[in-house]
Amino acid sequence: MTSHQSIIDHSHSFLEKIGSRRLMITSEVAVSIIIVSLLVCYHFVMDGPINYWMVVIPIIGFGLSLMDSCIGMGYGTIGSPLLIILGFSSKLVVPSILISQAVTAVIASTLHQRRRNVNYFDIKGNDLRIVSRLISFGLIGTIIGAVVAVQLSKAYLNTYIGLLVIAMGVLLLLRPSITFTWLKVNLLSLVSGFNKAMSGGGYGPVATTGLLVSGNPVKNSVGATLFSVIFINITSFIIFLATKSMTSFQLPIFLTIGVLVGSQLGPRITGRFGGSRIAKALFAFISMTMGMLTIFLTFVT
């Protein structure tokens, strides 16, 4: 009986590997088709210029999406000021970050679910409850942030986000005894959505680190943040387009090309190392670093 069960287990494992490999191949083919379609659309339909940004922007998108899909933070927080430093207008950077990160979140969320880092469909589980609160209260924060954004100085906003992220990194490193409550998740969602609408960044560092500080596991925190950011970003993108116009599609298209590749790798890294104590210490360090970078880049741009 034991031998028979062992054969069945090995068979299931073999079939899972085949299914995983087929999914990977299908994903790679789909990504290749989308990338070629975007390039054709950009050059022949939009009559876009051919220049060195066609190489630089995808590399930036790849790096940002790899980090974001792996640790659930950093895409907008690092990407927005970096692109502004490179000479792109903030009016173009923010919507480009929002829509390209949404693509990252869709791919990464699917892969996190596939690799069982998180379970979005378990009605009785905490993952779905956390995601629903991140989305609902995050959207409220997004709307508030969009209204306040026109009245608040970006320097004050980014300093606030930077200090908040640093504080959460310190809390995560010190690991104080903080009880997980749904009220905290609600407040966390409001603040994260507010940050995203205001600057295009600041959602992931606050949401992911806040969930970790509250005692939520690494894998679940990353997966929940990524899934919720799809809805937050699309809403912010629509609000942004309703009030301002995009003058160029080069930046969002080529960021997305890089994103399509990078976002497939991050979930594999999270799945392998996300449950260790070292991972939590690393998250704390990254969070504090991002907070300091946010403040520094605010005053040099």
Tell me what you see in this structure.
This protein is mainly α and 301 residues long. The protein has 2 domains: 47 residues; 252 residues, no CATH class. The protein has 12 helices and no strands. Helix 2 packs antiparallel against helix 3 and helix 8 runs antiparallel to helix 9. The longest helix has 44 residues. The chain is globular and about 55 Å long. About 5% of the residues have low confidence.
Determine Rg (CA atoms, Å).
20 Å
Q: What form results from the Cα inertia axes?
A: globular
Task: Indicate the proportion of strand residues.
Answer: under 5%
End-to-end CA span: 69 Å
| Sheet having the most strands | none
Total domain count: 2
Low-pLDDT residue intervals, each spanning 5 or more residues: 7-20
Number of helices: 12
Helix content: over 70%
Oligomer: single chain
- Overall structural class, as computed from helix and strand content, comes to mainly alpha
Number of strands: 0
